[in-house]
Amino acid sequence: MNNDNIDKDHIWHPYSAINSDLPVYEVASADGVRLKLKDGKELIDGMSSWWCMIHGYNHPQMNEALTKQIKKMSHVMFGGLTHQPAIELTKKLIEITPTALQKVFYSDSGSVAVEVAMKMAIQYWHAKGDIEKNHFISLRSAYHGDTFAAMSVSDPDTGMHSLFKDTITHQIFIERPNARFGEPCNQEQLNELEHVLKNHADEIAALIIEPIVQGAGGMWFYSADYIKKAKVLCDKYNVLTIFDEIATGFGRTGKLFACEYADVSPDIMCIGKALTGGYLTLAATLTTEEVSTTIDKGDPGVFMHGPTFMANPLACTAALTSINLLLESNWEDKIQNIKQQMLEGLNICKTFDSVNEVRILGAIGVVEMKYAVDMAAITKEFVNAGVWVRPFGKLVYLMPPYIIEKEDLGKLINAVVNILKKYT
Ligand SMILES: Cc1ncc(COP(=O)(O)O)c(C=O)c1O
Fold this sequence. Notes:
Layout: H1 3-10, E1 27-31, E2 34-37, E3 42-45, H2 48-51, H3 60-72, H4 84-96, E4 101-107, H5 110-127, E5 135-139, H6 148-152, E6 172-174, H7 191-200, E7 204-209, E8 213-214, E9 220-221, H8 224-236, E10 240-244, E11 268-271, E12 283-288, H9 289-297, H10 313-328, H11 331-346, E13 355-361, E14 364-369, H12 375-384, E15 387-388, E16 395-398, H13 406-421
Helix pairs in contact: 3-10, 4-10, 5-9, 11-13
């Protein structure tokens, strides 16, 4: 077998076909905000490896903490055993997330954290004797992951609903709010939610949303007022709320957690991605005393989930170190500076005929095109320009590591502007 062809002929990449024509670049190493390719070319990372690498690659303190931990233990089962990295991390998560969230369940990926959240909501109502409350309300354009329950609450049109329609559970979808971030949300935009709650609350376990930013479903920034009012309605009709902060958590939107913009605490919250600073895969589902004790008192008296790699000590160490690094840094200023530079640099794209809109929030800069871009062609252009930017559909976006310097961010912005200008 020729090593040069192993990747192309034998490995699936995300949403790809084996032997596809889409280019795949081999990364030999990564440091700071730079990916170094096998051929020696360096790319400035504008993606933070899908929102994760907030402190950049090969971070000395992250490396040191993990090396220390690896010498103690890389892994130990969590059934019947515990360890300091999990205990310390839990203390920290309880401290930094909304006050009502006091109980933590660890899992390996965002999608599983969403599965766990949905199971918690169902088990909560089951324990209360409301066994019919086992469906969910979700927003159009939502994305909550690729496993079956997570798929079921992801947008039915852009998601995989038709392909898996006989297996996937049918949930209730309502329009996403039109009110933009920073705008108030009028009653009219809550009518559909209220209508569904009024008529179906006895079969609904929870409303699940990505607060403030709908990520992979369209990079849509919406009103904090909607979240506030939706929570009031859910409480009124006895429906739980699940906030999926997997993409938004740990500062990306300018707040540590996006729900802080609405000053609302959910019943259940999912975190992942930047939780470990991108070093290892770890996610968590947090909930309240009320949800956890109700589950514990119900039948069968335990929460029914337990992954093999639950609370992996290396991953917990990475998470604790990453959170401390974040909190000890002037991250709010960094996000503000990234935002300001993107506002100044990307707004010119609004004048291009091919561009529909430019949206910037926190360290997320989005240029929405009028039509879907040719991903293979445009990725090649970005690589030739020395940057790593991976658009999807109509969306060309930047979400760099928080440590990026002004000059490197300038290069990223210029690459986006210059390449998109050619599409006009
Ligand atoms: C909001 C949100 N929820 C869930 C997920 C799924 O996370 P993972 O890819 O780690 O399974 C993602 C991933 O992009 C996400 O953006």
